[in-house]
Write a structure and sequence with these properties.
Elements lengths: L1 H22 L10 H4 L20 H13 L3 E11 L5 E12 L5 E4 L1 H4 L4 E5 L5 E10 L4 E5 L21 E6 L7 E14 L5 E8 L11 E3 L5 E8 L11 E5 H14 L5 E2 L2 E6 L1 H7 L6 E7 L4 H5 L6 E5 L2 E5 L3 E5 L2 E2 L3 H9 L6 E8 L2 E8 L1 E2 L6
Antiparallel strand pairs: 1-2, 1-4, 2-3, 3-6, 4-5, 5-6, 7-8, 7-10, 8-9, 9-12, 10-11, 11-12, 13-22, 14-15, 15-18, 16-17, 18-19, 18-20, 20-21
């Protein structure tokens, strides 16, 4: 009986050896597919692989060039603040944003709201080195802040000119969305418009883009196709969701240049102002209001004691609504400054950026059907006035 068991085992082992040695395919890379084994066909699984790294197309090469040029100048900004819980206990909190290097001396530009109320600020470079940062100056109205670090071999960003930007122009955003360092997104300029900033004041001529901008991008550069900074990414229209909706906004770099010039000259922001609350008027509104020009900047209100108020310019008194926004009609319509036509708030803002507090300008305006001029001495901006 035992002999039979031994013989049976030998036969089983021998049969298994014969089957695996002689019946299985020698080339396992050509095992039939499941469908083939079911009688659908007898084609082997042959994989097709690339023989070499594929060449990049012109658009990809452009994207890569922008990233390589700008990445070293982009930084991660971490701010530490102290909040208080229900029992008034101190609770340390951290906020994250982005920024970019302005010069080899270690000055860095970011958003004011990234470092507001911070007790400690830390900057991380693209090479992962961390440095403590000092706040040199801030401009809450324009949502800008200037930092200083002590670090070697810094790569400054190249600043462009934000005048003449056009809808459809390709743009790139590099920053640290959700703490993901060195992230680049692409899109186009969707519009140029004035919007309410994170601190409540208006961002004049904000660059609207569909490039993905998320929490952590704030303060980072918005770049053109040459890798030059045209704006500082600042906010998103999220409609309640704390993430990109395809509608983001950047502060134009020319506004930042003007603020930086004030920091350099005075140690603080001292932007010139007409002392008015402006409303841009186009042909449709001009026709509805019965104005004597197709376009211009309507003075909704003058700031009491401000530059325009002292010069005799008038704001509106007739309350009306533009959509859901309350406006005041009946004020003077600015159509020129120093013989230069003014038809938009963007043109008005660009003129202000070329002047300083105390400069005298000649304002051309319409009061009803009358064309008048007034000499205005520019005061200092405050709040959301222009």
């Amino acid at each position: 009986m035992k002999f039979r068991h031994v013989v049976l085992i030998v036969l089983l082992v021998g049969g298994f050896w014969y089957f695996t040695s002689h019946r299985m395919p020698a080339d396992m890379s050509r095992v039939p597919l499941v469908g083939d084994m079911e009688g659908v066909g007898s084609s082997p699984l042959d994989l097709t692989e690339a023989h070499a790294q594929p060449a990049y197309d012109s658009e990809e090469l452009g994207n890569i060039a922008v990233y390589k040029k700008a990445l070293a100048s982009v930084v991660n900004v971490t701010s530490s603040i102290v909040a208080y819980d229900f029992f008034y206990g101190a609770v340390p909190q951290q906020g994250q944003g982005s920024g970019f290097v302005l010069d080899k001396q270690g000055r860095i530009l970011t958003n004011f709201h990234v470092v507001a109320n911070a007790r400690q600020i830390e900057v991380t470079l693209s090479d992962k080195h961390k440095y403590k940062a000092k706040l040199l100056g801030s401009d809450q109205a324009h949502d800008l802040a200037l930092l200083q670090i002590q670090a070697p071999d810094l790569t400054p960003a190249v600043l462009s000119d934000s005048r003449g930007l056009v809808v459809g122009q390709k743009v790139y955003a590099i920053g640290n969305p959700f703490g993901l360092n060195g992230t680049m997104t692409t899109g186009i300029i969707s519009s140029i418009r004035s919007v309410g900033g994170p601190q409540g004041a208006k961002i004049e001529n904000a660059i609207q883009t569909d490039a993905a901008i998320n929490p952590g991008n704030s303060g980072g550069p918005l770049l053109n196709s040459r890798g030059e900074v045209i704006g500082i990414t600042s906010l998103i229209a999220s409609n309640g969701a704390d993430q990109s909706s395809g509608v983001g906004f950047a502060i134009p770099i020319n506004t930042a240049k003007a603020v930086l010039e004030d920091f350099s000259k005075y140690g603080h922001v001292r932007r010139p102002s007409l002392g008015i609350v402006p409303l841009e008027i186009g042909p449709d509104l001009a026709e509805q209001m019965g104005l004597a020009a197709d376009a211009g900047v309507l003075i909704e209100r003058t700031v009491p004691g401000g530059s325009s108020d002292k010069a005799g310019l008038r704001g509106g008194r007739e309350r009306a609504y533009l959509g859901n926004t309350e406006i005041f009609l009946g004020g003077d319509l600015i159509i020129g400054i120093d013989d230069q036509p003014v038809t938009t708030t963007q043109e008005l803002s660009e003129i202000m950026n070329r002047h300083e507090v105390g400069d005298s300008i000649v304002v051309t305006f319409l009061r009803g059907q009358k064309r008048l001029t007034a000499k205005v001495v520019l005061g200092e901006a405050g709040g959301s006035q222009s």
